[in-house]
Write a structure and sequence with these properties.
This is Response regulator. By secondary structure, the chain is α/β, with parallel strands linked by helices. The protein has 5 helices and 5 strands. The longest helix is centred in the last third of the chain and has 17 residues.
């Protein structure tokens, strides 16, 4: 990617340091996206209130707070708009209840542990969507 062409900014909300650093490092090496990191929902809220992002990668391990954030996002409460693509990561056994997740329209839901390639493919789709949007 040329220096004049900025990478899409994506917010990564993930409490696990090693996973977070792995995701960010590989995405950077592939010139995929520019991740902004948040270790928890409170830090993410501060960033969402002040910056626009092309997408969000959200760990559902934050429980009800993660669902609340996603619900508020879809209601247009943040600078990035309500239709921003979101990738959910979850370590909960089984699939999240479609009744709760479905209306929140995630781009994808990944179950931990997942292969980094699966996440990066979803992030690549998110980045392509952002680059193809008329500005």
């Amino acid at each position: 990617m040329s220096p004049a062409q900025a990478l899409p900014a994506v917010l990564l909300i993930e409490p696990q340091f090693v996973l977070r650093r792995t995701i960010v490092t590989v995405a950077r090496e592939l010139d995929l996206v520019a991740f902004q990191e948040a270790t928890n929902i409170d830090r993410a809220l501060a960033l969402l209130g002040s910056r626009r992002f092309a997408g969000i990668v959200l760990d559902m391990g934050e429980g009800g707070d993660a669902m609340t954030l996603l619900d508020e996002l879809r209601k247009g409460a943040f600078a990035c708009g309500s239709r921003i693509p979101v990738i959910l990561m979850s370590s909960e056994p089984g699939r999240p209840a479609d009744g709760a997740i479905g209306p929140l329209q995630p781009l994808s839901v990944l179950r931990k542990p997942f292969k980094i390639g699966a996440l990066l493919e979803s992030v690549r789709s998110m980045a392509l969507y952002e680059m193809q949007k008329p500005h």
